[in-house]
Amino acid sequence: MPEGDTVWQAARRLHEALAGRTLTRSDFRVPKYATVDLTGRGVLATLARGKHLFTRFEGGLSLHSHLRMEGAWKVFGTGERWRGGAAYQIRVILGTADRAAVGYRLPVLELLRTTEEENVVGHLGPDLLGPDWDPAHALANVLADPARQLGEALLDQRNLAGIGNVYKSELCFLLGVTPWLPAGALPADRADKLPVLAKKLLEANRDRPVRRTTGLPGQDLFVYSRAPRPCLRCGTSIRVADQGDGSQDRPTYWCPTCQTGPAPAPGSPQRWRDRYPRRTA
């Protein structure tokens, strides 16, 4: 599932391509909306809310989409070859006189009244890149279940909206604790840093083509997807293990030296197995 900065970038691309223009093409390729035609409607805006996208049209309609793992929005100019997947993967096309926004493999696509958007995202916590950001509220949400593993609490969009698996691993590294640490055991000084650091990372990366968290030349990330390469701080081999409830485990990366707290129970050798070829730093 994409991180909040990726969704924010998608919203910006769609907004810049469509907002203030009139649709000259409307092509829904999902059975539920096969007869819907938005041609002639003006596009008002596209905005992100957490990991959700809303494109608003004249007449009080909004198109809600969610990328999840495989979805993507691509924008093409007149005469430009479409590159985003096979034709059968296209779920919707929104075209203007000089642009085409093409939605590929979108698992969530629905038309609703703009006044009903809150019904879709009202359960979300404060948005790290949104106008509703409230660091105190976000931290209180994360700490509300003290026994819950911190990594799981960070991924819960009801606590704060925008963190995905990459930022979960990177934030825990920067805070110096493992993702398996109970949220209530997070030291107070690090807990205070958590919402500030999370927002700083997403804001810094929302305008970048390549996500970076390290500030080190040639090194984009501290731990995510780096197992079993050496830690950039201490040289210890980065480890990877699944974290989740079994139904939606996610590969989680950490440094066993730089990060204190519980590690995953080594009940299954596969959870501790290095999954990637050994490479140098």
TrEMBL record:
Residues 2-89 form the Formamidopyrimidine-DNA glycosylase catalytic domain. It catalyses: 2'-deoxyribonucleotide-(2'-deoxyribose 5'-phosphate)-2'-deoxyribonucleotide-DNA = a 3'-end 2'-deoxyribonucleotide-(2,3-dehydro-2,3-deoxyribose 5'-phosphate)-DNA + a 5'-end 5'-phospho-2'-deoxyribonucleoside-DNA + H(+). InterPro entries: DNA_glyclase_Znf_dom_DNA_BS (IPR015887), FPG_cat (IPR012319), FPG_N (IPR035937), H2TH_FPG (IPR015886), Nei2_N (IPR044090), Ribosomal_uS13-like_H2TH (IPR010979), Znf_DNA_glyclase/AP_lyase (IPR000214). SUPFAM superfamilies: Glucocorticoid receptor-like (DNA-binding domain), N-terminal domain of MutM-like DNA repair proteins, S13-like H2TH domain. SMART domains: Fapy_DNA_glyco, H2TH. The keyword RNA-binding does not apply. PANTHER family: ENDONUCLEASE 8 (PTHR42697:SF1). This is DNA-(apurinic or apyrimidinic site) lyase. It comes from Streptomyces pyxinicus.
